[in-house]
């Protein structure tokens, strides 16, 4: 199976299991180096990032969910989003253009090049509903509390381990409370 197919299938499964709806934010952190079996940040590949982006965006477009592509730590894990997402979620734009080998990473660079009206935002204010971490890039800070791991049938894309996460509403009310199973 190709990287494009693996990423598309993984994201489709996350969208279904996390019950995402049109207009929700989905965060992707990605190391193209890890996908190729190398250590994070050592072998950046926009070709691999193109394949990942194509598969992920295909799944997200089908559902109307916004992509938030996380930049690397050199840009403080800023994110590339569509201007419409920035406006909807009242996010703060910053002035940076991701670069594959300098600051931003290959996936964020590809997202910036391929989105219709891309902007870079400082953070998501913990407003994402779910996401996928491809290769250990740390995305949890972008997802609404409470972040919980999400197990899917895919555990790797290429050679990179993936960790999927979704949010669930906080439990309130203590021992007497009754909870909605669909939100757990």
Automatic annotation (TrEMBL):
Pfam families according to UniProt: DUF436
InterPro entries: Antibiotic_NAT-like, DUF436
Similarity remark: Belongs to the UPF0340 family.
Protein name (Swiss-Prot/TrEMBL): UPF0340 protein SAMN04487771_103922
């Amino acid at each position: 199976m190709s990287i494009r197919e693996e990423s598309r299938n993984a994201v489709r499964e996350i969208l279904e299991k996390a019950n995402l709806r049109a207009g929700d934010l989905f965060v992707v952190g990605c190391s193209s180096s890890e996908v190729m079996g190398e250590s994070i940040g050592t072998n950046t590949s926009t070709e691999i990032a193109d394949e990942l982006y194509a598969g992920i965006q295909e799944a997200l477009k089908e559902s109307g969910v916004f992509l938030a592509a996380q930049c690397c730590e050199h840009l403080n894990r800023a994110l590339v989003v569509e201007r419409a997402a920035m406006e909807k979620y009242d996010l703060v734009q910053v002035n940076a253009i991701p670069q594959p080998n300098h600051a931003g990473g290959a996936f964020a660079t590809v997202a910036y090049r391929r989105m219709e009206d891309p902007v870079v935002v400082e953070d998501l204010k913990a407003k994402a509903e779910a996401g996928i971490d491809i290769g250990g890039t740390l995305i949890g800070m972008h997802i609404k509390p409470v972040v919980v791991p999400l197990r899917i049938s895919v555990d790797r894309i290429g050679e990179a381990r993936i960790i999927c996460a979704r949010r669930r509403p906080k439990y309130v009310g203590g021992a007497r409370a009754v909870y909605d199973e669909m939100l757990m």
